[in-house]
Amino acid sequence: MNEENKRTSADNGSYDTTTNTTASANPTPVTTYTYESRMNTSDLRASYEKELGMHMDMLKPSMGGSKLSKRNSRNSARTMLASFLIGAVVIGGFSYMADKNNLFSGSGQPVQSTGSVVSNDANDNAGLSTASLSTSDGIAAIYEEASPAVVKIETYAEPVRSNSMMDDPAFRQFFGGGGQQEEQQQTDEQSSGNLELMGSGTGFFFENDGYILTNEHVIADAEELQVSVQGYDEPLTAQVLGSSYELDLAVLKVESPDGKEFHSLTLGSSDGTQIGDWVIAIGNPYGFDQTLTMGVLSAKERPITIADEQGNHEYEHLLQTDASINPGNSGGPLLNESGEVIGINTAVNSEAQGIGFAIPTSTITEVLDQLKANSL
């Protein structure tokens, strides 16, 4: 029969031990150890020395004679094996405690890991600090702050008359027409101001007294500009103060109906940006108002060529981003992770995915005063 005796002391964090004693002439105790993580290093060492001393005392009688019996040899071997196992457990426990308590790092405080991060701190050898757009809360906060300053711009112009044979005077002479009455009716319709919606784009307030930045191609050839602003039920009529075809920039001005200031965005520094920085675009792509897209700054100083009605339009020093840019985003802000404008979204590669372009603020700020004064 085996008699089992258990000693547990989990409250103080020592070992749990189980000792089995067999009913034989020379009983050999075999002790099993279960490591408790709550033990400290001093407890581990004391327990190890105690158990090792007990087994060394048991070895002395068996080593006293010149000849050892086979039974004593087996007992000695078992005792040595038990001592080896005890040492392995204790050494493993020391290693675990040293790692847990950070004993070999030169600091008594445990090191806590961080996520994927970026830092510009020269004193931080690891080069790690938390990025500000690592959570959805940061993105939502930037959007909530910036979106009231982003506006929708709709352009209106007279409809283009078709050049049909009925409009040819020679055709009218030989085949008849509406005569003078019809011609007078067409003239009255043209002078009545019946304008049609020709297109739409995006802009944003950069000053709270009504100054708006957008692309020149958004407002080109428009006879009237209507600007939809958050908080106003009716669109506001905008005036073009100045524009530049070469730079594809334009400044508009609207008046506040209630005398209140408009929300505006701060123009940041595009020179201070780095490839890989988070960027956010807000605009009205395909008429979906106040759409937010997000990506990274893919490249800087990009030159591109766009073919338009006036020929090939050369752009230089553009920012490239993989934030989704679509028709209707033109003129909208490209924001950094602090909510500052670093560019104006202006073009997209229609044959690719995730290749959009923005005019950097380094270009904008050089000519902004001239655009406002229409002196460029």
Automatic annotation (TrEMBL):
This is Trypsin-like peptidase. Gene3D superfamilies: 2.40.10.120. The chain crosses the membrane at residues 79-98. Pfam families: Trypsin_2. It comes from the Bacteria. One of its GO terms (biological process) is proteolysis. One of its GO terms (molecular function) is serine-type endopeptidase activity. It comes from Paenibacillus prosopidis. InterPro entries: Chloro_Bact_Ser_Proteases, Peptidase_S1_PA, Peptidase_S1C. Residues 17-31 have a biased composition (Low complexity). SUPFAM superfamilies: Trypsin-like serine proteases (SSF50494). Residues 1-31, 173-194 are annotated as: Disordered. Keywords: Hydrolase, Membrane, Protease, Serine protease, Transmembrane, Transmembrane helix.
